[in-house]
Design goal:
Layout lengths: L2 H22 L5 E6 L28 H13 L4 E6 L1 H5 L6 H4 L1 H6 L3 E5 L10 H19 L5 E5 L6 H13 L3 E3 L21 H4 L4 H14 L2
Parallel strand pairs: 1-2, 1-3, 3-4, 4-5
Helix pairs in contact: 2-9, 6-7
């Protein structure tokens, strides 16, 4: 074998190894967060909320969305493109919801990591039929978001634990091949509520996760991301 040939083969081997390593360490380029006020809520004077991030974190950087994004960026060494959307309207009227029409932008985003954080605004599931309808609607949502691709999918349970809602979310997640993240135990720790950190004029805002709660939610999600 000539020296030139040897160097060519050596370069090819090294390049293959580098490519494999880069692929193994490839970050999630696009992350989609779909949720409710815990994920993002714009300013609303009548409830004394002036932020435009996850209620009721004390700053944008301290809500779970930004904590998860920061942790994953640090882990991969690359900052992902992120899309955050409040879909409380889906929660409140999931039956017959026009997923294709109302979520055209998020479907088109083409995320390779999808994090679903819903359930808190879903009306109480009073029967097995209600639970089945909610599960079916979540399944439709997840199917539409996945499309023909194979993005990594995470679905977290409700912050305010609710057995019926959480079971429906877990079943829909399982059917879609996603990863279910149970954060229900967090609601048992009063220190995770914003009201334990500072005073609020509105009880509903105060009942949201505070900085400690947001950090706990983020930690559970980051730990579950493959």
């Amino acid at each position: 074998m000539t020296r030139s040939r040897f160097h060519h083969l050596l370069f090819a081997v090294l390049l293959t190894g580098f490519t494999a390593q880069a692929t193994a360490q490839s970050p999630y380029r696009k992350i989609l967060f779909l949720g409710n006020s815990i994920t993002r809520h714009g300013p609303k004077a009548d409830i004394d909320w002036s932020g435009n991030w996850g209620m009721a974190a004390s700053a944008e950087s301290k809500d779970y969305v930004h904590l998860v994004t920061k942790a994953l960026a640090e882990k991969s060494g690359a900052k992902p493109e992120v899309l955050v959307k409040n879909i409380a309207d889906f929660e409140r009227a999931y039956a017959g919801y026009d997923v294709a029409g109302k979520m055209k932008d998020v479907i088109g985003f083409g995320a390779d990591l999808i994090i679903i954080a819903i359930g808190e605004n879903v009306p109480g599931l009073k029967s097995a039929e209600d639970a089945a309808k909610f599960q079916a609607s979540v399944s439709r949502l997840l199917t539409a978001l996945q499309g023909d691709r194979k993005p990594t999918l995470l679905v977290r349970s409700c912050f305010w634990a609710n057995a019926a809602k959480d079971e429906a979310l877990q079943k829909a997640c399982g059917e879609a091949g996603g990863i279910f993240v149970n954060i229900g135990p967090l609601s048992k720790d009063q220190g995770n509520y914003a009201r334990s950190e500072r005073p609020f004029k509105h009880a509903g805002v105060a009942n949201h996760p505070g900085d400690k709660g947001m950090a706990a939610i983020a930690a559970a999600i980051v730990k579950a991301v493959p």
